[in-house]
Amino acid sequence: MSITLTDQDKLTLRTAAYGAVTLMSAADAAGKPHKAATEGSIALASATGLVGHVLAEYPKDMKLDGKSVAAIADHVLPALTAAMALLKKQDPAEAGNFRNTVIVAIEAAARTHQGQPSPTLAEMTRKITEALDAA
Q1: Average per-residue pLDDT for the chain
Q2: Cα separation values, 53 from 57, 67, 101, Å
Q3: Most Cβ neighbours (<10 Å): which of 18, 83, 121, 133?
């Protein structure tokens, strides 16, 4: 199945994926946020298929900054749901690839601690997964 993505569609996918990593990094502010961001970004850079090609192009107009974690989440969580809905409509297999890619990235970001992730990271993981599954 051939997928046609507009520039806006690609921006939504990138915002969703990189935004999920940004949220995990922000949720780990008291721990190792830079390491969480690095591990999550490496996981995204390792993506394959259409998702891998889209994530490999870092857009200059992607906005992932905010004055609070809540402000970032207000932008990123809906983008995760929109990205899944968009991909499910065009190619369910690629939607699965996107979901798996984001899950691996947030797990990599949370893995920077020995043992279990903090309750804050666990809760952010739940919110991201919930947004992915809302589509």
Answers
A1: 91
A2: 7, 30, 12
A3: 83
HSE at residue 53, side-chain half, CA atoms within 13 A, is 5
If you count them, how many residues does the chain have?
A: 135
CB 108 within 8 A of CB 45: no
Q: Mind listing the pLDDT tens digit for each residue in 117-133?
A: 788 999 999 999 999 99
Contact 40, 111 (CB under 8 A): no
| Confidence bin at 56 (pLDDT 50/70/90) | very high
> DSSP per residue over 13-48, as a string?
HHHHHHHHHHHHHHHTTTS-HHHHHHHHHHHHHT--
**pTM given for the model:** 0.93
Measured distance CA(47)–CA(36) in Å, rounded: 17
CB neighbour list of residue 34: distance below 8 Å, 6 or more residues apart = 25
| Residue 27 φ/ψ region, left for φ over 0, alpha for ψ in the -120 to 50 degree band, beta for the rest | alpha
CB 17 within 8 A of CB 84: no
Apex CA 130: angle with CA 118 and CA 67, to 5°? 65
